[in-house]
Amino acid sequence: MTDKKKGNAFTNNPLVRAVGVQKIVVLLVLILLIVFFCAMSPSFRKYSTVLSILDYTYYLAFLGMGVTFCLITGGVDLSIGTGMFCYAIIGGYLITHMGMPVIVGILVTLGCGLIMGTVNGLIVSRGGHAPFLATLCTMMIVRGLGAIATNSTSVTWPAANVANGWTRKIFKITIGDTKFPLGLVWVILLAILLSLLLNRTKAGRYIIAIGSNKEAARLSGVNVANYQMLAYIICGLMTGLAGLAYSSAFQSMAPSGGGGIELNAIGGAIIGGTSMSGGSGSIAGTILGVFIMSVLQTGLPFIGIQANYQQIIIGLVLIVAVYIDVLKNKRLA
Amino acid sequence: MGDVILTMKGIDKSFPGVHALDHVDLEVRKGEVHALMGENGAGKSTLMKVLTGIYKKDEGTITYEGKEVEFSNPREAQDAGIVIVHQELNMMGHLTVAQNIFIGREIMKGKLIDDRKMNEEAKKLFDRLGIDIDPTETMSRLTVGKQQMCEIAKAISHDAKVIIFDEPSAALTEAEIEELFKIIRDLREKQLGIVYISHRMDEIKVITDRVTVMRDGGYVGTLITEDCTKDDIINMMVGRVIYEEPKTESAVAPDAPVVLKVEHLNAGRMVRDVSFELRKGEILGFSGLMGAGRTETARALFGADPKDSGDVYINGKKVDIKKPQDAVRNGIGYLSEDRKRYGIVVDKTIAENSTMASLERFMKGIFIDKKKENEAAQEYVDALNTKTPGVDQLVVNLSGGNQQKVVIAKWLVRNCDILIFDEPTRGIDVGAKSEIYTLMNKLAAEGKSIIMISSEMTEILRMSDRIVVMCEGKKTGELGIEEATQEKIMHAATLRN
Predict the structure, then answer these.
(1) Whether B73 and B149 share a structural domain
(2) pLDDT, tens digit, 9 for 90 and up, residues B46-69
(3) Count of domains in chain B?
(4) CB distance from A6 to chain B under 8 Å?
(5) What secondary structure, in 3-state letters, does chain A show?
(6) Which end of chain B has the lower number of beta carbons within 10 A, N or C?
(7) Which residue of A has its CA nearest to B399?
């Protein structure tokens, strides 16, 4: 075998190789998008737009990072969008309608995510259900549960200016007259933490191995069911966290809402290079991908594209992202 | 041999990083079986892929039936009469035999598919080839051998003038190979040009008329099979002589302790009341025909498949192995016959694969100690002589033999004392094969105990200290290497009781 160098100068650059071509491309696309929106709309070039993009980013980032683990095992979690609403509504209902302390609401929101993540994990890993169907079913279940638990009322977490409104300051703190996007710090911290989990711990290694070749992992003595389940538990917990982020950024949440958001999160992960067929993916990529989604979502109205058209554009973006994934898999085969 | 039907001249092909074909020549005549030989990675498959339009050649000419051709996809080649019978079966298990054979060119009755007509046509085809298969049978219910026959029938039904067999015998039993050879001879009579790719030297002598040898993407030479010896061909392939001498006496000390004892193991239809012992430092060969239940026995023992009953003792102590984790914990390592599916994670690095079964030893707190991992992987890359630029290389980029070494490394890193090698040299070229043999002998000498499942008689006789023979799920014979002969093994392997 002759040892000619593979690829071109760009792909051979050690920095490019370490970061990954796709992530760099996604970053460039992201910058282009922002430049595009700035050029098209003067009102986009405001600090308030940055804050609004970030509001969209927090919950999508949490969902995206969580579902990245499921995707890497070769599965998916479709219940995250509806679940995020359901958990935050139950938590918020306890605070606003039952008069419980805010901390209880927070813990219940996270706890619901943890429990549903475990349920998803159990169904997929022990029951052997196809993740797609299993989580489609739990999506139906959480949609019903949210409505029942809250008597079908919409819930708004306490606003920033009332006594119980401190949850909102976790993500956006006002100092003097300026609002600071504190949530960004949490997203970055969590991204680092989950990156370490994925790339440096045994659990992460096994989750990747399972997605890459489940049977080989099993025959190597890996407890496949447990680690598969762990991925769904992480995803569930992150969904709970996303619920907190959502409820602190936005107003009223209606039970049985949130459907479709899972696709934005999964889309972000896939744009960031996580493979639908499992075995590869990265947290950093997911974060970049999620930013593309949130910039699109925030930016499109600025150039006069209305909600229904936004859906179409985001759908098209996802098709392109999945197509890139298909091409990558072809190369491996 | 008749006129030349196909000439490939000066074929050159490069991929990013690899000069896969370096001006290769190949000439096929009507009515000849032309062997294409070379180690894995020599470029045989690439050459055939260039021929059938899967890859585009960089340089060179292909002349077929007197005209220069360049197919842009396998379909075009097929329509022109050049078909490949692949090593891996490309069948749709849920469809019937006839539906598979006519896939993509269904016989229609108006707007509807005419299944009856297709069944009739398939039947005619099988009759012509002397194959006994029911065209209405579901494909997945056939044995691998029969599926292969269907694949051949499908190829022939395309009105082929040139048929390429890519390691057709790899999964066949001796009887099925005989049947295959009958068909090939028949095709030769009918003046087809046949390209036959195989690693089995014996077959080359039996079935082929000429041999073209490739090495490292280059053309080495073409010989008349009759005029050359096995060693001639091997020499051209690797540039060295390999002697395949059978073992004559056991290398195991008579008082070596029994490390593994299996009693009355039952698992489904394929493992029925199997008992055997394995001693320290022993290579225990498992021989038998395809479907004898050897792999199933190993998988049940390893906990990969559920077992119905039976006891397993390790170093005299009864152990309960329910899942692979239990087996690994008890020091058993299993090298599957199907590396890509069960052995390795192809899109991960050598280092990651090497530590897969023993990650807990490479932890620093909750984090994986990559440095330590790389060192361990490097140690076994050196010890096993794995050819790779580094341990961060993706396994997918390695040749079959080197992939096998990575799987072995995985179990050695784990420090397993009992290793189950299931077809350890399947699809591995001659040079790497002999390295794997040396390695297995070395491991046995170091006190590891090895169960080696092999369908190659020469491999069994060359490596084993003792031989267990199975047939249809039962143990039908046990022979010390001193008394073992091909005839005795074959006799036991066909003992149907």
Answers:
(1) yes
(2) 899 999 988 999 999 999 999 999
(3) 2
(4) yes
(5) CCCCCCCCHHHHCHHHHHHCHHHHHHHHHHHHHHHHHHHHCHHHCCHHHHHHHHHHHHHHHHHHHHHHHHHHCCCCCCCHHHHHHHHHHHHHHHHHCCCCCHHHHHHHHHHHHHHHHHHHHHHHHCCCCCHHHHHHHHHHHHHHHHHHHCCCCCECCCCCCCCCCHHHHHHCEEECCEEECCHHHHHHHHHHHHHHHHHHCHHHHHHHHHHHCHHHHHHCCCCHHHHHHHHHHHHHHHHHHHHHHHHHHCCCECCCCCCCHHHHHHHHHHHCCCCCCCCCCCHHHHHHHHHHHHHHHHHHHHCCCCHHHHHHHHHHHHHHHHHHHHHHHHHHC
(6) C
(7) A1
